[in-house]
Design a protein that fits this description.
The chain contains four helices and five strands; from the N terminus they run βααββααββ. With 137 residues, the protein is an alpha+beta fold.
């Protein structure tokens, strides 16, 4: 399916609270983008998804999910987790210096066209979805 396809699509990958899920999510995302003819977005999308999923797994308890969607020339990535609390606002990468903490959402903010979060429930459990978007153009 070419990247200018008018047909929107969405995939969801439910993952356990396990750091190995980050690698599974990244590889699954690359496969999805490849079969949809969006391989040129793969490197940036993998970086963004890695940060979103890693935050969901590291900072919350319980299962999580990676969402990958395409509509109107925009790739939307999101990570759902079971913690309804909003993420800490990201600081600018320049402000972080050599610190390893806080880089995840700072990278998302720097590399994505848009990002945000919203409260979201799954199977009666409250949580949140942290998302970002990449325009194909």
């Amino acid at each position: 399916m070419p990247e200018n396809s008018p047909v929107p699509w969405e995939y969801r990958l439910y993952i356990p609270n396990d750091l190995r899920a980050v690698t599974v999510s990244r590889r699954t995302l690359r496969l999805i983008l490849t079969v949809h003819g969006l391989i040129r977005l793969a490197d940036t999308a993998e970086l963004l998804a890695t940060e979103l999923v890693a935050n969901a797994v590291r900072h919350t308890e319980g299962s999580a999910a990676l969402r990958v969607g395409w509509a109107a020339g925009v790739l939307r990535l999101g990570a759902w987790d079971a913690d309804p609390e909003p993420p800490e606002p990201p600081r600018a990468l320049e402000e972080l210096g050599d610190s390893e903490d806080g880089r995840g959402l700072a990278l998302v903010r720097a590399c994505a066209d848009q990002w945000g979060w919203q409260p979201l429930s799954r199977n009666g459990r409250r949580g949140k979805l942290v998302w970002c978007e990449l325009a194909a153009a």
